[in-house]
Amino acid sequence: MNNLELSIKEIHSRLVNKEITPLDLVEECYEKIEAGNHLNSFITLNKSEAMEYAKELSSQEVETDNLLWGIPIAIKDNISTKDIRTTCASKMLENYIPIYDATVIEKIKKQKMIIIGKTNMDEFAMGSTSRTSYFGSPKNPVDPTKITGGSSGGSAACVAGGLVPLSLGSDTGGSIRQPASYTGIVGMKPTYGRVSRYGLIAFGSSLDQIGPMTRNVYENALLLNTLVGKDHRDLTSAEKEIEDFTRLIGQEVKGMKIAIPKYFVSDIVSPVIIEKLNHVVELLKANDNTVDYIDMKYLDQAVTLYQIIAMGEASSNLARFDGVKFGYRSESSSTVEEMYENTRGEGFGKEVKRRIMVGSYLLSGDNAKTYYDKALMIRNAMKKEFDKVFKEYDFILGPTTTTVAYRLDENLDDPTKSFMDDVLVIPVNMAGLPGMSIPMGKDQENMPIGLHIIGNRFEEAKMYQLAYDLENKLK
Amino acid sequence: MNKLTKEEVRHVAHLARIKVTDEEIEKYQIDLGKLLEDVDKINDIEVETDELLVTPVDQEAILRNDQETRSVNFDEIKKNVPAVTGNFVEVPVMIGE
């Protein structure tokens, strides 16, 4: 059984021709997951429900116009799934079972996709390695001694390892794109507002966005088609016409104007990564596209901004975990105040506690003006910088990360290092732009290297056009 | 030199309603200090605007119709509540003696 190695289109045609059923696909997923369990990419498997649903689908007619019918998918464990445990990789939510579906889950179910399980991640999505998970680190399928990146590490590992064809991640400061880069897959963080955040357990609400993680560009666009749309339950979701994100795929990329900020190719980036980017630049130029290296202000300050805004927002978003109505509650408290402190002291991990405390500090008293307001001014200025560039250029390119995935035991317990892993991808969240990572080669040790494509707001279709073109040329 | 005193760490932990043990205080003093050193770099950045960007969304907020929608009943909610008495959520004493 090697159906899962086929493209979605090929799987679909096998389903239509009755050569296979959804049950075959689901069984194959679980066989692979159980055999590949060393990757630790899942926190919770949805096995009996998925098998039952697959059986039910197997007795129905295949929807011939729905390529995602009966296709297995994995979901990051911060996206609420009715009746499936949703832990955010935290002891705090170890036994939490949502009573409602996130909007994206409703949409996935409408397509008759099959939820295989909930993927491992950094606790409450705080981290860049997935090592802050209460359930242990997921491992990189390319080299299991290396990190997957994060925070959507499990979602990246299960797709890269061939356990499931598609997954959902979330991205607050690079959490889809950076692990996609480290594991050699395609990850898209859509424009802020493109995908409803209803049911996504909030970390930094003005930055968070759900997006698809897939083996190739076409399937990424296909999955995004399912996820988008205005949702009255998320006030920030965008009022946009439904569009087909695959529509420009296959069209030639010619005469486009591409900018590469000099900071993205500065000495913070490994030479081998620059080398791969240079190759991409040659490919683009060979097809009559222009590539300019430009100056852009504020990019080098993105990490500082992110620390203030994301930790500030996190400290207020995570105030809801108080042990009262759901989640972990510490047993030994004589007053409610004590219960809050004990519950949060025992229920959260180190990284989360650090970030909540710093966030509380930054938002308290006069600090709110000194730090938070200042950060929002710079955020405004940074967005204007991007707007200026997109008046003249079609895309901004760069590497997704400054290095390839490092060892699981490297850089442990450094409170600031993990932020630096996302230095090149954070600006996109600040400006609410769409950003995606596609593989652009490997280093000497076979570790994947990602190309970061940044588009203007709501121009995902055009990004897929470029990404598909480069994906083919880089084969 | 740590950026926060032990007392300040305790204060911040209290603001965040996070219990920090005496053994943990020193470690947090160092870790929070490092993070705050990073964050302090914001003061060196010159910026050309004084307008704040709270969210990247530029559409106007649209209110939804004032209609009754799905509501959940307590039996469903109850499944996740750590301690329940009848139809109430049970918590320790809220007002001290």
Assembly context of the chains: heterodimer
Cα-atom radius of gyration of chain B: 23 Å
Q: N-to-C SSE series of chain B?
A: HHHEE
- Radius of gyration of chain A equals 21 Å
Q: Largest sheet of chain A, described in full?
A: 11 strands, mixed
Sheet with most strands: strand arrangement of chain A: 1-3-2-4-6-5-10-11-9-7-8
Strand order of the largest sheet of chain B: 1-2
* Share of residues in strands of chain B: under 5%
Chain pair forming the biggest interface: A-B, 75 and 53 residues
Helix fraction of chain B by DSSP (H/I, runs of at least 4): 25-40%
Q: Based on helices, strands and strand pairing, what is the structural class of chain B?
A: mainly alpha
User: Which stretches of chain A of 5+ consecutive residues score pLDDT under 50?
Assistant: none
- How large is the count of helical segments of chain B? 3
The proportion of residues forming helix of chain A, as a percent range, comes to 25-40%
Mind telling me which CATH architecture of one domain in chain B this is?
Answer: Orthogonal Bundle
Strand content of chain A: 5-15%
End-to-end distance of chain B = 42 Å
Structural class category of chain A: alpha/beta
Second-tier CATH architecture of one domain in chain A: Alpha-Beta Complex
Number of strands of chain B: 2
3D architecture notes:
The complex is a heterodimer of chains A (475) and B (97). Chain A is α/β, with parallel strands linked by helices. Chain A has a domain at 3-227: Amidase signature (AS) enzymes. Helix content of chain A is 37%, strand content 13%. Chain A has helices spanning 8-16, 22-35, 47-58, 103-110, 153-160, 177-183, 217-227, 271-286, 302-317, 336-347, 350-363, 367-392, 417-420, 426-431, 460-473, and strands at residues 42-45, 72-76, 114-119, 166-170, 186-189, 210-214, 257-261, 290-294, 395-399, 435-442, 448-455. In chain A, α2 packs antiparallel against α3 and α9 (302-317) packs across α11. Chain B has a domain at 6-41: Histone, subunit A (Orthogonal Bundle), CATH 1.10.20. In chain B, 35% of the residues lie in helices and 4% in strands. The interface between A and B is large, with 75 and 53 residues.
